[in-house]
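Methods, example record. To illustrate the input and output format used throughout this study, we show the complete record for Type II secretion system protein GspF domain-containing protein. The sequence lines were provided to the predictor; the line carrying structure tokens was produced by it.
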Amino acid sequence: MLFKYKIVDKDGENKEGQIEAVNVDIAINSLQDRGFVVVAINSAEKKEFINISLFEKVSNKEIVILSRQISTLFEAQVSILRIFRLLSSESDNPLLRKKLSIIADDIQAGSSIAASLARHPKVFSDFYVSMVAAGEESGQLSKTFMYLADHLDRSYELMSKAKNALIYPLFVIGVFAIVMILMFTVVIPKISAILVESGQEIPFFTQMVLSVSNFLIDYGIFLLVALVIGGFFLYRFTKSNVGSLSFSRFKISIPYIGGLYQKLYLARIAGNINTMVVSGIPIVKTLESTASVVDNAVYKNILLESAQKIKDGKLISEALGDYPEIPSIMIQMMKIGEETGELGRILATLSKFYEREVDNAVNTLVSLIEPILIVALALGVGVLLSAVLIPIYNISGGM
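The corresponding predicted structure is encoded as:
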């Protein structure tokens, strides 16, 4: 790559120029080795008009496949630089292809694999980087990438099941809302004209339905604008520290759904800690890395605070035991694992247990929510039609 630079030379004069280097770090080191003070440096190559990172992302599934490919190529004794060059050229995702190419450049320049991956936190999590660093230290990179692929695959499957369980009810609720809006704004106004022209007394419940219909027709656009603005500010609020914590606590407090989320996060916590402990990563680093991928602010804070308590001399079971969000059975089993030296095996058992619990909870939720939503949809439309059609029937009967 070509870089433009501004430097101060040995005589104290400001100079500008260009230098060819694999990456910016190499360029800076090369200039400093000549005794120059680097004031500014940036790429001299033509930048793309569109930043693909704004429109592309790397999915968990792609990271799982990438990890398996790296492991397989390691077993085939392909060099690490060749692996990343090969996978960079073969990737269908433009963003991942670009990231892998940069990583290959960094490795060629002398960086470790973990350090190269760490430069791309939006693609490779702290958990992923820590595992790779442990694999480099132990010389077991092939196994490490296979462990990562297996672990991420289980986590991805678990998250997919939980999300898919919520897609159907959200779809039905959305259809219900659309049907009701169409009824209030299109169907009922036409029917209400018949009731008004009849001159007969309109029942109270029917008057309520007609009032709602008139409100939506007259002020529906303002209501829609208010909902959009409110949704925008709610989204911004959930991205703040206070909002994220409040939303995370709300998620695990919803009846039944909250229990599903709790089991999902506990399965992820147990699985991540097990994978990292077995790989020989220190428990403090393990908790900090797990906090970065747990995807819930409540449990993230618990893990970070527990890591600090462990630094102060507490055992992991004692540190986590201070929080009601961590079930007592999990604390007791972790304590047994610490006493027997089998913490990894205990955590693996806990992870599988909570994964089964999530699976069972999702199946139960789907089997219950489908008939409930269908009945609710039918009752809502039925009651609405009854409120309008019964008076019309009375009118026709009196003729």
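Annotations derived from this record:
Residues 2-43 form one domain.
DSSP finds 15 helices and three strands in the chain.
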